[in-house]
Write a structure and sequence with these properties.
The chain is α+β, with helices and mostly antiparallel strands. The protein has helices spanning 6-15, 56-61, 73-80, 113-121, 163-171, 189-197, and strands at residues 25-29, 37-42, 45-49, 84-85, 89-95, 104-105, 123-129, 138-143, 149-154, 179-184, 201-210. A hairpin with a 2-residue loop joins strand 2 and strand 3 (45-49).
Length: 213
């Protein structure tokens, strides 16, 4: 049985209301996906997922801490080098509802920009949607933060889907009780409201990058 990644463990605990200590500290962990690094920040505690070619001394010199320092744009830029840097996102958690899936596999949506983005930072990306012909609402289900199931979505603007309903339907793809995560840009208020209304809870922030040092 594969070991549980520390990020998966801490997010799963947070889903149950058990958060890291508010001590201002930071911890180093191995990245959960080759080629992608990141910082996960909770209230007063942070985790830096960085490969071993960056020494502990180098990390210390950049001034990380659990009170925002680990997410400092200068620190992230230094670690990313000339590589791609993702937006700073809110991390939300919920639990799967299981039962009869409300969505069907949609391989025809595999080239959707949101699916392509998911493929760049997550693993085992699968695309789902509604069975109705011409409906391009997309839900991605991937192995995401720490290896936990991660969902992303985009509604079809030509349809009458409500974002909250799409999120709830996405949760039927996850076995009942299993922790699932989602990342949402703070400025994407419509999506954030949909996740919150569907039962997701905010627990942390995350910023990912693909380093070129």
């Amino acid at each position: 049985m594969d070991a549980v990644h520390p990020i998966a463990e801490v997010l799963s605990k947070a889903a149950g209301g058990d958060f890291p200590a508010v001590d201002g500290a930071w911890q180093r962990v191995e990245p959960w996906r080759p080629g992608v690094e990141g910082v996960l920040a909770f209230t007063g505690h942070a985790y830096l997922a960085v490969v071993d070619d960056v020494s502990d001394g180098t990390l210390e010199s950049l001034g990380p801490n659990g009170f925002g320092g680990a997410s400092n744009p200068r620190l992230v830029s230094r670690l990313a080098g000339t590589g791609w840097i993702d937006a700073l996102d809110i991390v939300l958690v919920a639990r799967g509802t299981g039962g009869e899936p409300a969505l069907v596999p949609r391989s025809d949506l595999r080239n959707h920009p949101r699916a392509q983005h998911a493929t760049a930072v997550r693993s085992e990306v699968r695309t789902f949607g509604y069975a109705a012909p011409g409906d391009h609402t997309l839900v991605t289900l991937s192995s995401g933060l720490g290896g936990l199931p991660e969902v992303g979505l985009e509604t079809d603007p030509s349809k009458d889907h409500v974002g909250t309903e799409v999120v709830r339907d996405a949760l039927t793809l996850i076995p009942e009780g299993d922790v699932v995560v989602a990342a949402c840009a703070p400025g994407n208020a419509r999506a954030l409201r949909a996740f919150l209304a569907a039962g997701f809870e905010p627990v942390a922030s995350v910023q990912l990058w693909r380093p070129e040092r």
